[in-house]
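Hi R.,

Here are the chain sequences for the assembly we discussed:
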Amino acid sequence: MWPFGKKVACFQCDAKVKEKASRLRRGFRFCSEACVRAFLDANQLRRPPGDDAQLRLELGNLAISALGELTRLGARASDGLSIRGASGTVFTLQASAIGVAMEQQRDEEVTDALHRFNQHVTEALPYLVALGLTAELDALDTIDLDAAISEARGTPAGARAAAEGLQRHVVAVLERL
Ligand SMILES: [Zn+2]
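And here is the predicted structure of the full complex:
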């Protein structure tokens, strides 16, 4: 193995950079903050249709769906998870909607759940931009899905740890709604 850490190509300028030193956005790796900015400026997320109240509701639904996947992986939400948003709306993950947490998780199922989680998160990004939730956007858009999958595969404890690590970023979004 390459002794100085894995290298990746910057998605914007193709420069080779150590993976550890790279910046992650939209699932791509970049060599510098300048390349991140150039990419984001060229690929701006369009505001979804609807007024802010509708956007908050849609975003809340996406966040709840994302949390549902995490509870499957063992993130704790035993008798329904309720989160009160800044506007007073209460978002609840019903125990019945969670599905049975996987007892004997197979790596394949763990990976699938995290991919579904990531899909909900990706769909949520334009809403975060439109609502000006910049810090929450940055937290979700810099999630390292591959690292989460590696952590989650293998043992239920690993799956739970990975899921709970991701859970707080999603809960932070709901708290702003
Ligand atoms: Zn670059």
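The helical segments are 33-42, 52-72, 95-98, 107-130, 134-141, 145-152, 156-176. The chain has a mean pLDDT of 89.

Let me know if anything looks off.

Best,
T.
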